[in-house]
Task: structure prediction
Amino acid sequence: MSGLSAHVVAERGGFRLDVGVEAAPGQVLGILGPNGAGKSTLLRVLSGLTPLSGGRLELDGRVLDDPTADVFVPPERRPVGVVFQDYLLFPHLSVLENVAFSPRARGVPKQEARRRAAEWLDRLGVADLAGRRPTALSGGQAQRVALARALAGEPGVVLLDEPLAALDAGTRLAVRTDLRRHLVGFGGPALLVTHDPLEALVLADHLLVLDGGRAVQRGTPAEIARRPATEYVARLVGLNLYRGTARDGAITVDGGGLLHAADVHTSGPVFVALRPAAVALHASRPEGSPRNVWEGRVTGLELFGDRVRVQVAGAPPVLADVTPGAVAELGLAADHPVWVSAKASELEVYPAS
Amino acid sequence: MRPRGERRPPWLLVVPGAIGALFLALPLAGLLSAAPWGHLGELLARPASLAALRLSLVTATAATAFSFVVGVPLAWLLARAPFRGRGLVRALVTLPLVLPPVVGGVALLLAFGRRGLVGQYLFEWTGLSLPFTTAGVIVAETFVAMPFLVVTVEGALRSMDRRLEDAAATLGASRLLVLRRVTLPAIAPSLVAGAVLTWARALGEFGATITFAGNFPGRTQTMPLAVYVALETDLDGAIALSLVLLVVSVTVLVLLRDRWLGGGATA
Result:
C-alpha cells in the first residue's frame, strides 16, 4: 500500500512510546501533544535516527524498520525529508549549497544538484537568497529554505517538527498559509508535529493527539477541537472539559457536580465540553430557564481579547468569558462568591473511550 | 582612572599577584636584554643554525601532518563511537601530556628501538631502524604533541550541535560524508587550533627527541637541542635560536588569543 503505515514502539530511558501512525499520500497528519508526549521520539524513529524497539514501519510498501525481521534502513537511505525545529541549516554552506546537499549526497552530479536546488528555491519563492549564508536569513526565509532542502531530496514522506515555532507572530501568519500550499503540493504524506492548535487546525487534515507515549485521540481538527478527549487539548482550544458518567440525561461529574444536557442518548462514561462564552455569572441565584445552576467562588481573572476570562472554583470548576462591564457590575474579585449558569443545549456530551 | 565606585583590590592579593607576574616576565626580559641584536641575522644564517631551523620546521610539520591523519579519526572515535575501554583509550591519549618527555623517549626506544617490542620486527622485515634518524625525531615529536590535537578536536566534537549531523543523515549523507561536509567544517576553528598547538609543541620538543633520536647535527639536532648544545660554547648563537622559538610561541599565542584570552577585543 502507498503512504506511511507504522506501529511505533520505542523506549528511551524509562519512557515508552507505543502508537500506530497511518498517513495517506497527500494527507497532512498533525501530531499534537504536550511536552514529553513522545512527539520528538516519533519523528526520530520515523526518520531512522532512533531505531524501533518494537512494531514495524512501512513507507509505500517498503519496510524501513522491523526489529523482529531484523530490518533497519539507516536514515541516509530512507526517503524521508525532515524540517527540524530550528531548521538546522548548515552554517558554513550557502543557501543554494544547503538545498543542493541532499541531491549531491544521493549521487547527483554537482551542477545538476545545484540546478535542482535553484529550482526548489524558485518554487518556494526564495530564489533571490541562493547566495546568502543561513545566518543572514530571517526566520521566515530560513523556514522556506529548510523546507526546500527537505523536499529537494525528493522524499516519500516529509516530517516537520514545530515548523513555525521559531517565528514571530507576524511572520507566522504568512508562512503558515504558504506552508499549507506547499504541503498539499508535495503529494506524499506529511507529518507535522505541533503544540499550536491554530497551526494544527490550519495545516492538518487529520490529527493524532499524543499523551504519555500513547495516542489519546484521532480525528479531523474540527472534531477534536469541538470534542476534545484530553484536558491538554481542551485547554489549547479554550474549552471546559469534564469527565463523568451519564445516566437518564444527567451527568455526574467525576470531581463532583451534576450537569444536565439536552439530548443525551448515551449512558456510561462521557466527556462534557462547554464553551466559556456559554457560561453566565450572576450575583445571586438566577431565576428562570437555565437547567445548570451552581455556586462557586472566583479564583482568577484574566483579560482575554475584549472579554474577561473568569476562573471559578466549584463543583464543577469552570472558566467563564464575560464582558468587562459584567465584571464591574457583579463586582467580581478573587474569593468573591458567584452563581454560575449554563443552558443544557450548550453542553456537548460525547462518549469517553 | 578607576571608575567611580569600583573598589581597590586588597594589598594582600595585589603584592603576591604582582610578584607572580614579574617572576614570569623577568626571564623573558633577561633573554631580550642579552640578545645580540646587532648580528642576529648573521648568527641565524650560520650553516649549523640554518640546519637546525630547517630540520625543526620539517619534523614539526611532518609530526603535525601525521597527528592529523591518525589523530582526527581517533578523536572522532572517542567522541562518537561508544566502545568498550573508551575511558582507558582516552586516558592513554592524555598520558603524554603529563608524562615527562624523557620517559616518553625511553618508552619509544623500548617499543621502536632495534631490539624493541615492534622495532625488532620492523628491522628484521624492512631493515628500517627509527632511533637516531630524522624519522625518529618525527616519531618522538608526534608522541608528545599529538594529544594536543586529539584532546582539542574531541572537545570540539563533543560540544558541537550534533543535530546538524542528524539533519545531514536525513538528507542522505553517509557517516563519512557527514564527517567531511558537516562535522569537519563545523569544527574547523578547533582543527586549526589543535594543529597549531601540536605544531608548536612539536617544535619545542626536547626530552623525547634527544632520548630517542639523539643529537646529530643536520639529522636529529632540532632547534631546542641546538640551543642546549650552543649554550656551552656559543651563548650568542643559543640566544639567537631561543629568540626564534620565542617569536614562534608569541605568534601561536596571537593566533589563538580568541580561544584563550576570551576574545581579544575585550581583553
Observations:
- The mean pLDDT of chain B is 91.
- The CA atoms of residues 215 and 221 of chain B lie 5 Å apart.
